Amino acid sequence: MRIACALLAGTAALALPGHGDAAWLVSRTGAGAIGSKTISTAAPAAPSGSVSSHDVTVTWAVSRFVDGTAVPSYIVKRYDAFTNALQTTLPACSGNVGATSCVEHSVPTGSWKYTVTPAAGVWRGTESAKSATVVVLV
Amino acid sequence: MRLLPAVAALALAALLVVALAQSRGPRRAGPRTRPALKVSGGLLFLYPGARRPLPLVIRNNRRFRIRVVSLTVRVGNAKRGCGREYLRIGRFRRRLVVPPHGFRTLDLPVTMLRSAPDACKRALFPLRFTAGGRRA
């Protein structure tokens, strides 16, 4: 009789709701996707430059991805106005600039032109046309 | 005392029925069984260096509450030159209980590495979700 009672109790315990906690459920269904965007191929407008002694402030307009959002950074380049030789951009304007202006300090005496290229990581957009000549005097 | 064998046999039969029912229950989704948990979600407009929340919806197809204990996201290659190694997806770490026949949402952080090449422009990374849970 005791065995029968134990069996009945065990059955009841298993049948009661809330005791299936050990039941594991693994669902392998479900799918999705992550999409990326791209930088517009349209060239940005030429930047402008203003001089104060040997500091040149370069400003430019926002460039956008094709979905209309702003790109996160820009590459600023400086060229010799006469030879078109690319120069090394000085700190504050070098690398990926995360703004729409920068100040290049201690720019050597000479005549220079600037361009900006939209950038996101290693992605690059189209380089802008060159700015008007910026003259840094002695 | 003559009832004893009958009661024992009845109890054993009941045990067998319950065990059978539970073994056919929601332990593991069979090929023709509707999965207990269904996960869906996606994200657009990612770019190198961007970190965005990946919104996910977890649906419970059962009549009882399910505690989600694991959630993995498998990322596939987008296309030639743009492999899954350029995406980082954060881990599921929170406690989440999905109501019966209901759903819950959560976000996992996604980052596209700054080194993602041009091949990753306009790319689509397929995702596969695996969710593990237990009756709550």
Task: Describe this structure as you would to a colleague.
The complex is a heterodimer of chains A (138) and B (136). With 138 residues, chain A is mostly beta strands. Chain A is 10% helix and 38% strand. In chain A, strands 5, 6, 7, 9, 10 and 11 form a six-stranded antiparallel β-sheet that branches. In chain A, strands 3-4-8 form a three-stranded antiparallel β-sheet, with no helix packed on it. In chain B, the strands form two sheets. Chain B has a four-stranded antiparallel β-sheet with strand order 1-2-6-4, with no helix packed on it. Classes of the chains: A mainly beta (138), B alpha+beta (136). At the A-B interface, helix 1, strand 1, strand 2 and strand 10 of A face helix 1, strand 1 and strand 7 of B. Strand 2 of chain A pairs parallel with strand 1 of chain B, so a sheet runs across the interface.
- Based on secondary structure, the structural category of chain A is mainly beta
DSSP strand count of chain A: 11
How many helices of chain B? The count is 1
- The whole-number mean of residue pLDDT values of chain A reads 85
The poorly predicted ranges of chain B are 7-30
Our count of helices of chain A gives: 1
So what's the overall shape of chain A?
elongated
Average pLDDT score of chain B: 83
Strand tally of chain B: 7
Q: Fraction of residues of chain B in helices?
A: 10-25%
Structural class of chain B: alpha+beta
H/E series of chain A: HEEEEEEEEEEE
Determine the N-to-C terminus distance of chain B: 42 Å
From the alpha-carbon coordinates, what is the Rg of chain B to the nearest angstrom?
A: 22 Å
Strand order within the widest sheet of chain B?
1-2-6-4
Portion of residues in beta strands of chain A equals 35-45%
Identify the overall geometry of chain B. elongated
Helix content of chain A: 10-25%
- In terms of DSSP E residues, the strand content of chain B is 35-45%
User: Over the alpha carbons, how many angstroms does the gyration radius of chain A reach?
Assistant: 32 Å
Largest sheet of chain B: 4 strands, antiparallel
